[in-house]
């Protein structure tokens, strides 16, 4: 198997200046695997849901080539639920409800078919669960990437550091990078974080793009300036899934190829925000995606040698 | 004459987490002309100072090839003075003191030697003064660029709109673009602003780079991520001066060349913030500048056709 992802498959309810949803399908694992399915044909997901979760959604994942045998369905339990409200600027949000439900005692099981996978993506979850997955892989994957968030820095920093020490790539946003490192400059923050374990640090800046750091190399990918941002939920997971899916599909994590993977992730994320939840990603065609990749190429392109 | 700039030549006093200055030389006109002097050999400045302003500073401007006969020296009056304190993130600041002094009744005089100039840069000043300079040019320059700020939107919006209607390029920051247009999306904001007159809109996003809009074209230039930002004062003016100096020196305002001009301005601005006031720009060599331009080329460079 090329790529294994562990991450939540969940329900979200979203309020934004553009409208309000009922419970819709969300979760880091959902967005990550959906995004990576644009590139990688052979991938599996490890997750847990309650028996309230629609079987049709899991069937749809299968149809996208995602091996779902790592999804545990807990009889008599409820799926993880998150509800939030976005402010007018779409950059800040309030969490209205968090019901952990099945995630509270999530014991991730790695199916035999997933053993020997080349690439591992740890979606945002408790660092203990993320570490369990690493430990349960019989062969260490070539590249392990990890997403996390400020929540775990607040309540489980030591556990987070233990898991971070085991991974190759850390993907976090700018505020999280500052919190984790204790420094404001992102250049300095990346150095501090790289000393904690991950040799590759990707800092997501939302509408301001993303930065990639590896050794003395730095790459900046812009975000595509958009007329409307409809729902940012899942954009970070989509970015991570696009990145890791591209890396896994090309089986190349040279710095040059990581740049392309970041553009692939950024392009997917730019679609994700155009509609609520996973809707836009589900409709998206490879042709549309490639047209947007071209926009990214054009956006930052200039020819210059010296002044 | 190739380029004429109108803008303040002033005193600043700055407090930041890195230290505190006495009165040092600042002002939009100072930073703009200093930046553009890296490219354009024949330029003039229109400004006003009091007799408290050091003659040596004006001599230094002359030494940089800046024609200073447009600087009025008002006997018995004091130079414009601004004092501010930067917060820890260096992105927000409080104004501590603003003494308009000679700027209060500034009546800009265009010396005969400045008539016929090809390019005109209107540094941040009251829109009435900016418009007076346009009206006092006997021949309309090929390209007129204008910087402004939220202060004028708050107290002189109608005057600002009148001046904007006469210019080709508007250079403002993201918050100002949102205030002026009344919309949050910068893509939409640029459309609204272009309908007000300026066909070219440049939106500065500080540490997040800059956007250039012209017709259906959009270009994004990153800012160079820095280890330390020492003093952001004048960075926006330096950017504008670098942009306009590059355009004037190359005498080319095609979209492709405007991109290069933005990189030139961004590179100069990245030096400006390394020391207090104009200090770093005064020491800067062309060799250092070109090395930084190369860093900008590398920073956002990737090779990709499709996914």
Explain the layout of strands and helices.
2 copies of one chain form a homodimer.
Chain A: E1 3-6, E2 10-16, E3 19-20, E4 24-26, H1 28-36, E5 43-50, H2 55-63, E6 66-74, E7 81-86, E8 93-99, E9 119-122, H3 127-136, E10 143-147, H4 150-155, H5 157-164, E11 169-173, H6 174-181, H7 186-194, E12 200-204, E13 210-214, E14 217-221, H8 235-250, H9 255-272, H10 279-283, H11 286-299
Parallel strand pairs in A: 1-5, 1-9, 2-7, 5-6, 9-10, 10-11, 11-12
Antiparallel strand pairs in A: 2-3, 2-4, 7-8, 12-13, 13-14
Q: Classify the helix fraction of chain A into a percent range.
A: 25-40%
If you compute it from the alpha carbons, what radius of gyration of chain A comes out, rounded to the nearest whole angstrom? 18 Å
Span from first to last CA of chain A?
50 Å
Largest sheet of chain A: 9 strands, mixed
Structural class of chain A: alpha/beta
Biggest chain contact: A-B, 47 and 47 residues
Proportion of beta-strand residues of chain A: 15-25%
Taking pLDDT < 50 over at least 5 consecutive residues as the criterion, the unreliable ranges of chain A are: none
Shape of chain A, please? globular
Number of domains of chain A: 1
The CATH level-2 architecture of chain A is identified as: 3-Layer(aba) Sandwich
What is the CATH class name of chain A? Answer: Alpha Beta
* CATH level 3 topology of chain A: UDP-N-acetylmuramoyl-L-alanine:D-glutamate ligase
Mean pLDDT of chain A: 96
Name the CATH homologous superfamily of chain A.
Ribokinase
Q: Which oligomeric form is depicted?
A: homodimer
Task: Give the strand order, joined by hyphens, for the main sheet of chain A.
Answer: 6-5-1-9-10-11-12-13-14
Number of strands of chain A: 14
Give the helix tally of chain A.
Answer: 11
Task: Give, in order, the helices and strands of chain A.
Answer: EEEEHEHEEEEHEHHEHHEEEHHHH
